[in-house]
TrEMBL record:
It holds the Pfam family DUF3455. InterPro entries: DUF3455. PANTHER family: CONSERVED FUNGAL PROTEIN (AFU_ORTHOLOGUE AFUA_1G14230), MALATE DEHYDROGENASE (AFU_ORTHOLOGUE AFUA_2G13800). Residues 1-21 form the signal peptide. The keyword Glycoprotein does not apply. It comes from Crepidotus variabilis. This is Malate dehydrogenase.
Length: 237
């Protein structure tokens, strides 16, 4: 019987990567396509841009990763960060593959061996060369003891080696996922530092929610999720 590990490496578990590989775009995979006219499907009104000249999308990525939670003294989980691997799906905008990319990602990722990190998963699936970037948390660049989410493309397939290819952001607004309470919120964020985007949207979330309660003092947990991220108003060339 095939182990899950060998299934991951044998099959094309992430078709949005394999299709781009087969399309003869070895340098960029699903990226380097103009999505400036793209709209965010199903965006809750409360997350709309507050501007008379809204920013245009520059790149759209799908992520697979974990949301990290710690157990509070009140006995519920508080989000303390996340880690994820990102794939640029800009070139598939308007196609079924684009619409379903977060479902494809979570289906492959949720059955991966427990304890496997997103980085190990992309390595086992032999798709590391198609990775657009990583998502993780960093100390607030403006000081204080808070952390902020970052999306970093410096070691990715498109902006490799470009030290400006990242964005650290802060939350402007969030809204419950239209797909139900099993999925984490959709979020609108604003640039704090970096050139990769002026605004970021997390949309089309799948899973990532913690259990409703926990035992105070218990260890932090990681919950797998997938989503899309829209990066707006990038100044990267
Ligand atoms: C939208 O922008 C206006 C004008 O800058 C500001 O007064 C208002 O507070 C903003 N609303 C939100 C929800 O950010
Ligand atoms: C955790 O429980 C406290 C006390 O009931 C509540 O105020 C808080 O909003 C809860 N936090 C989360 C993340 O649900
Ligand atoms: C989240 O959990 C991952 C392990 O899956 C860990 O590598 C990462 O440092 C954690 N990040 C935060 C901010 O908790
Ligand atoms: C962060 O700073 C605030 C205000 O100074 C303080 O109340 C809080 O306990 C600090 N949190 C941590 C985790 O150090």
């Amino acid at each position: 019987m095939l182990s899950i590990r060998s299934l991951i490496s044998a099959a094309c578990v992430l078709p949005f990567v394999c299709v781009s590989a087969n399309n003869g775009q070895p340098s960029y995979g699903g990226s380097n396509c103009d999505v400036s006219k793209a709209t965010i499907s199903g965006l809750p009104a409360s997350l709309a841009q507050n501007s008379s000249s809204p920013l245009s999308p520059s790149f759209i990525a799908v992520a697979l990763g974990t949301q990290n939670y710690t157990c509070s003294a009140a006995g519920n989980y508080t989000n303390i960060g996340a880690v994820a691997e990102l794939f640029d799906i800009s070139c598939f905008y308007g196609q079924k593959l684009f619409d379903e990319s977060q479902d494809i990602a979570i289906q492959a990722w949720k059955y991966a061996p427990s304890g496997m990190t997103p980085a190990e998963f992309v390595k086992q699936a032999h798709v590391s060369q198609w990775v657009f970037g990583q998502h993780f948390y960093v100390p607030n660049p403006n000081g204080g003891n808070t952390t902020n989410p970052e999306w970093n493309f410096v070691s990715g397939n498109r902006f490799n080696g470009n030290p400006d290819a990242y964005v650290i952001a802060a939350r402007l607004a969030s809204a419950a996922a239209p797909t139900g309470s099993q999925d984490i919120d959709w979020v609108h964020l604003k640039n704090v530092k970096g050139s990769a985007a002026q605004e970021v949207y997390r949309t089309d979330t799948r899973l990532g929610q913690p259990p409703a309660s926990c035992t105070p003092g218990s260890a932090p947990i990681q919950v797998r999720y997938s989503s899309k991220y829209y990066f707006l108003g990038s100044t990267l060339q």
